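Issue 218. Parser rejects a valid record. Input:
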Amino acid sequence: MRLLLHAAIMLIATLRCAVAPAQELLPRSVLVLDQSIPYTEYFGKLIGALQSTLKAGSSAPITLYSERLEYSHFKGPEYERLLHTFIKEKYREKPIGIIIAVGFDALQFAVALRSELDTRPPIVFSSIDDRVAAQLKLPPDVTGTTLRATVQDAVIAAKALVPRLRQIAVIGDPLPQQTYRRHYQQELQDLAGGPTYSDLTGLTMREVLNRVASLSADTAIFYTTFSYDRDGMRYDPNDALALVAQTANRPIVIDQETRLGHGGAGGFLLQAAPIGEETGRRVLRILNGERASQIPIEAGKFFKPVFDWRELRRWNVSEGSLPSGSEIRFREVSAWEQYRWQIALTGVALAMQSLLIAGLFYQRQRRRSAEVEARRRMGELALVNRRAAIGEMSASIAHEISQPLTAIATNSNAGLRWLARESPNVERAATIFKRIGRDADRAAQVIASIRTMFKKDEDQSRSLVDVNDVIREVLALLHIELEEHEVAARTALSDGPQRVLADRIQLQQVILNLARNAIEAMGAVTGRQRVLKLESAATESEFIITITDSGPGIEPDVLTRIFDPFFTTKSNGMGMGLSICRSIVEAHGGRLSAASAKPCGAVFEIVLPLP
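Output the parser choked on:
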């Protein structure tokens, strides 16, 4: 009987122990106490890594609160009392599951604050030197990670930057007031058999700049943090580092990752993200049922030798002299190293395109010579009206072929500019050279189309063409010209494919010529946006294309003659473009008209019959 009673008691105790953790689960809310000033890059990286770790490791949401104690700005018992009262009252209605303390002073504040709270939440600390943590008498339910930042690491980095190092100039706030680096002062005094140190902490910024501008060649600078100077001026530590770097005549050793990129050459850098990740893992363990006192305090490996490649070049430091395992950041890779194959292929493509362009010009020259000879022979026998017809045809060819050739020249210049930059943009250049090939093909198609237009069997070259696709092709061809003239292109196209029976190249030339005229008309526009708008719409029997610009518009006397052959308002124009456009549209059974737009600009309307 006693045996059964004993077994029942044990079973009840076991069940109570099993149920107890579920009853004592902590609120899923975390209060982060950071002793530094707001908006530091270090805390931003730490809190970002902490949030990511908590989110990845928990299926249930965790609320994260943050308070900055700002001990570098405010001090004293009265401030401590007010800060305790403020935080305690602020979170009176917000249950806190865990307190995270970032830094030694934040840990002391957290311990004192917890004693005043009813819930007594566990504490997880970070960013505390392991020698300082070993001397603390921590209360129960406190765990965390420590780190070890030493002056010896800074000396090793300084010797790598200055091979004949004899002196280290220490810059920043007074070391006793730097919670992360208070032990540096004793370590600097204890340096034996190595470089001496010059204490430049606690000076004004003007004094610091004067001193670092005239240091000896065997000196390295060790920058800690500079948040204020003796005159009471406040500084962002990274901005202060940048000021020092602009004046300093010696390389600067740093000990924090977030200082990199602001003028420091590098060193054994404290990395904030791994600290945030490790702190997050400990918080998750506690929220999942472990007691903080059962999680041992451990020293983390949060320092890594990292150097700025630009500063190494500035001070002529060989990478071979750096500590083993060093990481080099901001390295600039030459265009040949990064894009060797792309440059080689682009060179081949450029050579082929050059040969193609040369061949095109040669064929054009031969064709022109043949036309001259034919025109001479025909002129001897033909009548005056026949010679006029031939002259109009040659003007048409010259006008239409000039557009693709101009595009080829523009794209060639643009491609050469992309390759001539200090950091060549090979991808953009390759894209432009592909456009040159397309423009060359289009030139040949234009010539063939014009020849077909003057033949009796011109209907054989026509097919069902999606006009909206033609409009998009024109905008793609005008991409560079739109950018150079700072013109915004807008479209309002009809839904679905809209097909008409037409010669695709001729229709493309009409839209392209009208769009180019619009771009040129807006060249002198100032004080308002330059806009090229292309619209399309369909009725039951017709398809309408509208091209509108925001230029100066068309004068009434010009509007009556704008489609006449050889009439032009341009100093270098032939007066054939709009006449040819109207002829092409009318040959397709359509009509082309022009008008002034309101409140400014011009509008051209193409109406084509639907099949």
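Fixed in the parser; the record now loads. Confidence is low (pLDDT under 50) at residues 1-9, 11-23, 381-390.
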